[in-house]
C-alpha cells in the first residue's frame, strides 16, 4: 500500500510562533486517520499546508505522489476538503453552491440532488445560503467535500456545529468513503466520533506529534488505566491494607463499602479475584476502559505522560 | 477548450451573475446613464444660462470631471473585496481544490468583475449617448466613443488597483480602508501635491481662459503616474482642449492606461501567489 499523504519534516512558523514543529506523518490508502490535539496544537495549520493554502517554513508534503505547493495548489480534483471555517457564498442557494463546486471539480451536476439529500438539505436546497443556520452550512460544506467521490477526504473538524444526527452523518460519510476504497484524514474534538471511525490517530501537542498509533495500542502503550467501581458487602477498611500493597493496583479510593480502583486493562481479573479472596463480597461493579478522552488528556497535560 | 479555462470561466460567470442577481449591474448602469444626461442637461449652467440636453462635445467637457470621480468609486467598490472576501470566508480553500492555481483565480475574478464594470460603464454611457445623439444630433459621436473607451480603461485601472489591495490585506475592512485611501490619494492628494510643486517651481497662473493654459512638460509627464490624470489628459486630447506635449497623443495615453490596468493586475497575482491563506 502506498502513502496517500506523506508529510515530511513539516515546520510552520508564523512570526516567531512555531505552529507545527518537524511533523512526520504518512497516511495510507484506505485508512481513516484521526488528527487530535488541544486548541492551538497546529492541526488546522497542518491541514492547510496539505491543501497548498500555506507555504511551509520547512518540509515537504506529497499527496498522491504530487508535491503540494502554494504555487500549484493540490492541482488534482481527487481531494475533497472541508475547511475549519467556511462561509460559502451568501447569495447562492444550497443547490447552486453544489452546482458551482461541480463545475469547479469537473463533476457532472447530476450528483447534486443525491448529495443534498444525503446531508439532509433536500428541502433547503432552493434557499439562499445567507439564511442557513450554522449546522446547515456545515452540512452543505460537507456535501461539497464528497462531490465526485474524491480519493482523499480531508475534513477539518467535520462535526463542529452539528447536532447528534449531523455527527452520525459525518460518521456515515466517513465509513461509506472508506468502504469505497477512499482515504480519510480528519481532525476532531468530538472524541467518541473519532473512536468510532478512526483506524489510527495522531495526537499533536504544541506542534509536535506526541503519539501515532491505533487506539488499542495507544491504550496499552500509555497504560491508560481501567477504572473499576465496586460495591462491597462490608466496610472497605477490612481489605484496604491488602489491596494498597498489591502492585497491580495503581490507585485506590474508598468510601464506606464502596471502592474505586484503577489498574492496567490486563490486570482486571486479577484485581477482582484479589478483592473476592480478601474476605468480602462484591455486590455490584462498574468497569470503564480507558477512553480516547483519557489518552487525549494525558497528552494535553503539561509535559505529557 | 482547455478544461482549466472552462473552470476559470465558471468562476468568472459566478462573479458576474452575482452582480446581476443583486442588481448592482443595473444600478451602476443607471447611475452612469443618469449622470451623463444630468451633466449634459445642467453641466456648466452658469456659463450657458439654460438647461437642456446639449451635444457630445459639451457633454464630455462637463461630464469628464464627474466621470473621473465617479468611476473610481464604482470600480473600487466592486474590486476591494474580490480576493480578501474569499480568503476571509475560507471559500478560497474550496476553489483551490479545483485545477485552478492562484493566478488563474485572480484572472477569473478579474474577468468576471471587469465584465460587470464594462457593462455598467459602456452600457450606461452608451445609452446616455444615444439619448443625447437623438436629441442634439450625432455630431462629435466618434469623439464620444473615444471618451467611453477612456472611461472604460479608467474603470479597469481602478478595478485592478483595488485587486492589489484586496490581495495584500487579511481583512475586508482593511481593504475598504485601503480603497478609500486609493481614491483620496489619486483624486485629491496627488494633484494637490503636484500643483504645490508646480507653484513652488515659480509657475504662475496666467490670465486668460483655462483651455489656453500651458503647463511645463514635466508637469504633464508627472501626471502620467496618476491614472485619473491620464484620463483627464485623454479627454483634453479628444476635445483638443490643451497644449499637450507631442508624445501625448491618444494612442500613447491609451497605452499608459493599459499599463495602469496590467501592472496592478500582475502585482495582485504575484502577491496572492505567495500568500498564506
Ligand atoms: N495566520 C496565523 N498567524 C499567526 N499565527 C497563527 C496563524 N494561524 C494559526 N496561528 C497559530 O498557530 C498555532 C496553531 O494554530 P492552528 O489553527 O493550527 O491550531 P488547531 O490545532 O487547529 O487549533 P483548534 O483546535 O483551536 O482549531 C496557534 O498558536 C495559532 O495561534
Ligand atoms: Mg483548527
Helix-strand sequence of chain A: EEEHEEEHHHEHEHEEHEHEEHEH
* Backbone shape of chain A: elongated
Number of helical elements of chain A: 10
Query: What fraction strand of chain B?
Result: under 5%
- Rg of chain B, please? 20 Å
The amount of helix of chain B comes to: over 70%
Count of β-strands of chain A = 14
Number of helices of chain B: 12
**Major sheet description of chain B:** none
Ligand types: adenosine-5'-triphosphate, magnesium ion
Q: What class, by secondary structure content of chain A?
A: alpha/beta
Share of helix of chain A, binned: 25-40%
Characterize the largest beta sheet of chain A: strand count, sense, and whether it forms a barrel: 6 strands, mixed
**Radius of gyration of chain A, taken over Cα atoms and rounded to an integer in Å:** 24 Å
Average pLDDT level of chain A: 87
Inertia-based shape of chain B: globular
What would you say this structure looks like, in words?
The complex is a heterodimer of chains A (305) and B (277). With 305 residues, chain A is of the alpha/beta class. Chain A has helices spanning 43-50, 94-105, 111-118, 134-145, 164-179, 191-197, 215-221, 237-245, 268-277, 292-300; strands at 3-14, 17-28, 32-36, 58-63, 66-67, 79-82, 152-156, 183-187, 200-205, 208-213, 226-232, 249-255, 258-263, 282-288. In chain A, the strands form three sheets. A six-stranded mixed sheet of chain A has the order 6-7-8-3-9-10, with helices on both faces. In chain A, strands 2-1-4-5 form a four-stranded antiparallel sheet, covered by helices on one side. Chain A has a four-stranded antiparallel sheet with strand order 12-13-11-14, with helices on one face. Chain B starts with a helix and ends with a helix. In chain B, 77% of the residues lie in helices and 0% in strands. The mean pLDDT of chain B is 90. Classes of the chains: A alpha/beta (305), B mainly alpha (277). Chain A binds chain B through residues 14, 48, 51-55, 70-77, 79-81, 83-89, 91-92, 100-101, 103-106, 144, and chain B through 3, 6-7, 10-11, 14, 18, 21-22, 89-102, 273-277. The structure holds adenosine-5'-triphosphate and magnesium ion. Residues 43-44, 84 of chain A line the site of magnesium ion (MG).
Amino acid at each position: 500500500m502506498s502513502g496517500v499523504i506523506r508529510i515530511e519534516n513539516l515546520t510552520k512558523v508564523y512570526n516567531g510562533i512555531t505552529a507545527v514543529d518537524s511533523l512526520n506523518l504518512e497516511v495510507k490508502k484506505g485508512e481513516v486517520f484521526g488528527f487530535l490535539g488541544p486548541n492551538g496544537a497546529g492541526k488546522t495549520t497542518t491541514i492547510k499546508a496539505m491543501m497548498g493554502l500555506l507555504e511551509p517554513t520547512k518540509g515537504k508534503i506529497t499527496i498522491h505522489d504530487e508535491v503540494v505547493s502554494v504555487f500549484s495548489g493540490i492541482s488534482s480534483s481527487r481531494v475533497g476538503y472541508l475547511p475549519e471555517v467556511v462561509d460559502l457564498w451568501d447569495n447562492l442557494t444550497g443547490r447552486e453552491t453544489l452546482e458551482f463546486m461541480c463545475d469547479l471539480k469537473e463533476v457532472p451536476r447530476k450528483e447534486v440532488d443525491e448529495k443534498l439529500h444525503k446531508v439532509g438539505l433536500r428541502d433547503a436546497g432552493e434557499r439562499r445560503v445567507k439564511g442557513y443556520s450554522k449546522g446547515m452550512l456545515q452540512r452543505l460544506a460537507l456535501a461539497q467535500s464528497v462531490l465526485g467521490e474524491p480519493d482523499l477526504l480531508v475534513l477539518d473538524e467535520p462535526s463542529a456545529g452539528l447536532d447528534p444526527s449531523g455527527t452520525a452523518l459525518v460518521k456515515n460519510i466517513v465509513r461509506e468513503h472508506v468502504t469505497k476504497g477512499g482515504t480519510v484524514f480528519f481532525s476532531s474534538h468530538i472524541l467518541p466520533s473519532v473512536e468510532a471511525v478512526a483506524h489510527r490517530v495522531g495526537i499533536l501537542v504544541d506542534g509536535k506529534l506526541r503519539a501515532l498509533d491505533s487506539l488499542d495500542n495507544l491504550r496499552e502503550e500509555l497504560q491508560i488505566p481501567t477504572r473499576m467501581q465496586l460495591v462491597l458487602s462490608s466496610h472497605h477498611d477490612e481489605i484496604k491494607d491488602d489491596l494498597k500493597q498489591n502492585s497491580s493496583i495503581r490507585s485506590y479510593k474508598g468510601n464506606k463499602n464502596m471502592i474505586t480502583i484503577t489498574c492496567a486493562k490486563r490486570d482486571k481479573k486479577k484485581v477482582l479475584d484479589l478483592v473476592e479472596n480478601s474476605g468480602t463480597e462484591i455486590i455490584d461493579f462498574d468497569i470503564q476502559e480507558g477512553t480516547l478522552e483519557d489518552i487525549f488528556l494525558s497528552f494535553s497535560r503539561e509535559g505529557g505522560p | 477548450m482547455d478544461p482549466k479555462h472552462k473552470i476559470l470561466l465558471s468562476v468568472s460567470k459566478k462573479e458576474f451573475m452575482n452582480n446581476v442577481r443583486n442588481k448592482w449591474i443595473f444600478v451602476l448602469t443607471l447611475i452612469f446613464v443618469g449622470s451623463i444626461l444630468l451633466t449634459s442637461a445642467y453641466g456648466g449652467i452658469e456659463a450657458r444660462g439654460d438647461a437642456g440636453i446639449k451635444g457630445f462635445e459639451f457633454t464630455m467637457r462637463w461630464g469628464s470631471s464627474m466621470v473621473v470621480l465617479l468611476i473610481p468609486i464604482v470600480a473600487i467598490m466592486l474590486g476591494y473585496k474580490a480576493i480578501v472576501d474569499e480568503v476571509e470566508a475560507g471559500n478560497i480553500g474550496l476553489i483551490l481544490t479545483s485545477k485552478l492555481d492562484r493566478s488563474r483565480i485572480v484572472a477569473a475574478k478579474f474577468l468576471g468583475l471587469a465584465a460587470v464594470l464594462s457593462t455598467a460603464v459602456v452600457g450606461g454611457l452608451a445609452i446616455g449617448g444615444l439619448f443625447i445623439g437623438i436629441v442634439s444630433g450625432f455630431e462629435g459621436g466618434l469623439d464620444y466613443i473615444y471618451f467611453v473607451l477612456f472611461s472604460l480603461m479608467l474603470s479597469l485601472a481602478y478595478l485592478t488597483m483595488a485587486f492589489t489591495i484586496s490581495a495584500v490585506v487579511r481583512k475586508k475592512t482593511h481593504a475598504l480602508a485601503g480603497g478609500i485611501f486609493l481614491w483620496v490619494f489619486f483624486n485629491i492628494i496627488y494633484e494637490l501635491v503636484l500643483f504645490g510643486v508646480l507653484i513652488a517651481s515659480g509657475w504662475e497662473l496666467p490670465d486668460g481662459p483655462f483651455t489656453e493654459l500651458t503647463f511645463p512638460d514635466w508637469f504633464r509627464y508627472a501626471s502620467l503616474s496618476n491614472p485619473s490624470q491620464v484620463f483627464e489628459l485623454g479627454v483634453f486630447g479628444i476635445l483638443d482642449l490643451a497644449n499637450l506635449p507631442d508624445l501625448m497623443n491618444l494612442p500613447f495615453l491609451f497605452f499608459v492606461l493599459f499599463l495602469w490596468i496590467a501592472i496592478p493586475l500582475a502585482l495582485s497575482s504575484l502577491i496572492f501567489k505567495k500568500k498564506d491563506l
